Amino acid sequence: MTSWDDHCLEAEKPTYCCFQHSLDPLDVSGLKQRRVIIDGANLLYLTKNALPGASMPNAKYDSLVLLQLAYYLDFYGFRVKIMLRSDFLKTTSNPDVLHELIDLGYAFVSSKNDKEDDDRAALEAAYRVGAVIITNDKFRNHHGYGFSVKGNLCTVKVDNPVRKRGEWPHYSFQKPLEHFYFINPGMDLQYRRAMEEDAHSPHDPVRSCKLANLFKFVCAVGWFQLHGEWSTEFPKAAYQIPIDCRYLTTKEWYSDRNIFYPPNMIDKSIADGPNSQLQ
């Protein structure tokens, strides 16, 4: 009989991203994962039509795209940082979700609204520890700054631009899985820097639990808004907006593992919860 913990692990496994097929696949077990930097502004531009609407009249983008990518990569053990400019806080819907990503330390907002400064911050961070930058920006304006960026970049595309209402966008990273690991760590200065930074800033499992619960909360609310029903399975079609996550972040069980969220039957923008023993 499957245990509740095993059921939760399988139910919470995100499947909406994939890597490019490798012509010469390598066994990456035992290798250190590279850090991942998400070019938040660029990914919001890329997917501005990937979501079914906006929770604010003037919003052009939706922060659920960033929540998706952060949760996927964090679930599979990658250290993730989203880089954003402050002007996007005013033009991105579901701001509660975006601010919670910032509070959890998954997103960093530059104090400057200059695109060039924003790009240089991502490049400098990636250069120091060998991080992968997920972006469709070629950074052509920055080759004069001494950054060797080509090997660090990974573009992404939306695989299902035409979808049913409420279906999550699916993404393909345009690099094989091996690109996200240190393949020759013994000769790599960036690898040693990454190890040093990890020693000073170890992985925080509580933060990962909160990110997972934030994503499950969004899914529970959205599924009910779309279908008027609640399921113990982690839904594939997940959201309708707006989502009010302020209710979630004030609860002591926000950092608990292996919980799901029945929707609130009166206020459809929030979910009740948690329920950790659904059968």
TrEMBL record:
Organism of origin: Panagrellus redivivus (Microworm)
Superkingdom as given in the UniProt entry: Eukaryota
Name this protein carries in UniProt: RNase NYN domain-containing protein
Annotated ranges, domain RNase NYN: 33-143
Pfam families for this protein: RNase_Zc3h12a (PF11977)
Annotated InterPro entries: RNase_Zc3h12_NYN (IPR021869)
